Structure formats: structure tokens, C-alpha cells
Amino acid sequence: MLLRACYADRVRLPEGWAEGVRIELTEGGDIAALIPGGSPEGAERLAGPVVPGLPDLHSHAFQRAMAGLAERVGEGGDSFWSWRRTMYGFVARLTPDDVHAIAAQLQIEMLKAGYTAVAEFHYLHHDPDGRPYADPAALSRAVLAAARETGIALTHLPVLYMTGGLDGRPLADGQRRFAGTPAGLLALLEALAPETGPDLRLGLALHSLRAVPAGALREALAGLRARDPEAPVHIHAAEQPKEVEECLNHLGARPVEFLLEQAGVDRRWCLIHATHMTEAEATALAASGAVAGLCPTTEANLGDGLFRWEPFRRAGGRFGIGSDSHVSVDPREELRWLHYGQRLAAGRRSFGLPGRSPHLGARLWLDAADGGAQALGRAAGRLAPGRRADFLVLDPDHPSLCGPSLCGREGDALLDALVFANHGNPVRDVIVGGRRVVAAGRHPAEEAVAARYRRTVARLTA
């Protein structure tokens, strides 16, 4: 149901907390006005403090169904590359109906956890033999259908994937479902264009420099910009040392260095992981205005390494978070482990970096909301007039937040508790584009979607 006006006792606005806020919404689901000290008359009363929802800027939806299936040590040990072989075996079985079932389950989990939007980095295009479906957009449409069912806002990013490495070798059998060309991906975007709207955005993903030759990268970008000059562009970059080594050998530059020099990286871009950068690359990436897409639980699960947080943030770098392989679907855990990883590596708790609040939880939450919205090409990320009405209502009685005057957790101390106190989920209600999609911790379709998901996973893992 679309809200027309609502009223909250406390709301985290960009400039700080405000009390007694009337939130007026447009018929299209944007914020028309925020009135501190406004009247509650005729407005729906919200049952707790209100904060911006977080975008999930990097998702491979189908991997939700294989979470936990790649934790075995084989001969030669385990690594990102052995995990990838397991993933290829799993993906070979998926049908469009399977993708719909998995994506819907994942998206409900995202919403209940506090994600209000997701960027789907979608590289599964063809049938198991690598042939196009009768409708070449069949697998993309499965993800779009799931988003319509669940109510999450979606930025759909079909992926260009052409080669098996920087030496130009052909795709392996496990990669044949991913194959594409710049012309084919642009045609896919045209086919999906009629389905776009305020809560469905299209962009393009380049899988990586390993998978997209430089000439094809430029061709795809030129076609995308002719179609939509503001469309977001995402790419995996510098995730593994082996990738950096191959780029140096074949391109004469490190991955982030090459992209900054050759690809016109700017605020429309999101570099996923960007783990293995030099300090100079981190500073230059920050200056470009691009978003660093950080996925701490997946990066830890795969043993990727730690992002160069301190020089990037000191230079004003923008970031967001993603759940990637979905070993965890919890924005608070991503933010917590983003900072914990840096603390462990540095041997200290704080970094003296500039920020809008002295509270680390507030800094992380608010900056990830802003950066994630930028990466999704979505006018969201903060509660302000003209922005999408994407926000969360927290449960003031939750053990992590409750007590006299919310346990003294006034102001941004509340966001510190939200991020760093790991005692269950304090998200009560979730509003996306002015519509309540989770109420009192429950999504209206969760039972039916979970039953369908269980049947799908039982068949896939039989």
C-alpha cells in the first residue's frame, strides 16, 4: 500500500536527527516534504525511529542457493579459483523458473534485513548448452519478475562476458551460459527497456578485464552512453592478485590503473572489490568520483584480502556495500566486518578520517546509503525532498536498541548500536518507493516464496 503521509517521532535527516517529523509523499513514491515539528493529523504513525534504507550494490542472485556448498578442502587446497569451479557446476543446472524462485527468496531476505534496493550483476544469459533462449532476455526477466513480486527496487545490470582470460582464450564449458557481445547486451537492454520505471533501472556490467577485451569494453560503453548517458556501469576489478599479475603482463598496467586511464571512469561507475590497489590507485579512484563496491563477507569467504580503506576514505572516496555471493544477507554485518577487518589489519579501532558524525556506525550507515544509491543510479540514499521514499522503521523495543530513552542511545549512538550490536534484527518496517513491503518484520509473500525456494533447492541439490 502506498503511503501518502506518515509521522515519526525521530528521523535521521542528512543534517542530523529531527523530532516529530511529518513525511509527505508524492503519488509516485518520492518524498515531497519533511516537516520537523509537523502535525501528525491524517498521517500514518510510524512505530519507531526512521533511517535511510541501504542499497545492496552487488548481487549474484542465483548464488544464494549454493551458499555453504563450497566449503570443502580438496586436493591442492581451497581458493577463489576452486570455489569458482563449484559455482560453474551449480549454475549449469539453473532454469529461468529456478532463477525466479531463488531471486525472490533472496530479495525478501534482503528487504527484511534492511536493504531497500539491489543491483543485480547478472551474467547468466543462455540455456545450459550455451544457446540463447527463444526470448534472449528470459533469465533477466526472471529477476525482474522476482522484484515485482517482492517489491524491492532493482537496478538490473546485464553482464558482458567474452573471454576466459586476458590472453584472449575462449570461454570454458562452465562459462558458456555467460557468453555475450556488446551488440547482444545492448539489444538485451532495449528488450528490457519497456519494463523500467521508478523502481527498475537498467545499466551495464563488464564482468572484468579478464573477460572483456579493451576494444569490446569501449564499444559497449559507447553504445550504452548513446542509449542512456547516465546509466550505471559496474565491473569486478583487482579482486585477486592473479588478476593484477595478468593485467600487468598483458595490459602493462594494474586493473584499477588501466580503467582509470583508459575507460573514462567517473561517478557513474562502481568498481566491485578493488581489493588489490596501490595507495596511489586508491587515491586516484577516490578522485574519479566512482563508488567502490565492497562486499566484506564474500571477500572474507573467498580469502580475497582487505580493501585500502584509509587512503581511499582520506581522499574522499565513496563506497557502498553488497552481499555478492550471499553467504550473508545482512547490511549490518557487511558494515561491521568492513570496519573490523580494517581494525584487525591496523591494530587500532579508529582512523581519524573525515566524516559527518563522530559516531562510526552512523558514518558507515549513512555513507554506504549515499554511495550505494549513487552506484544504483537511484535518487535515494538519504531522507530529503525529491528522493525516493526508501527508509526503515527500527523497533525501539528491540534488545539492541531499547531502554530508557532508548538506553541513552540518542542521536547517532542509535546507529552505532544498529551496526555494531549483533543481537538479532531490529528492523521493523521497510518502505520502498513509499510502499510498505515489510510490516512488523514480515513480508506478505514470505511463506509462499520460501516454499517455492525449498522445492527448487531440493531439486538442484538432489
From TrEMBL:
Designated name of the protein: Formiminoglutamate deiminase
State whether keyword Zinc applies: yes
Which cellular component terms (GO) are annotated to the entry?
A: cytosol
Domain Amidohydrolase-related residues, every copy: 50-437
Which major enzyme category is it? hydrolase
Name the cofactor(s) required for activity, per the record.
Zn(2+)
Family annotation (SUPFAM superfamilies): Composite domain of metallo-dependent hydrolases, Metallo-dependent hydrolases
One Gene Ontology molecular-function label: metal ion binding
EC number from the UniProt entry? 3.5.3.13
Formimidoylglutamate deiminase N-terminal domain location: 5-46
- What keywords is this UniProt entry annotated with? Hydrolase, Metal-binding, Zinc
One Pfam entry name: Amidohydro_1
Q: Which InterPro entries match?
A: Amidohydro-rel, HutF, HutF-like_N, Metal-dep_hydrolase_composite, Metal_Hydrolase, Metallo-dep_hydrolases
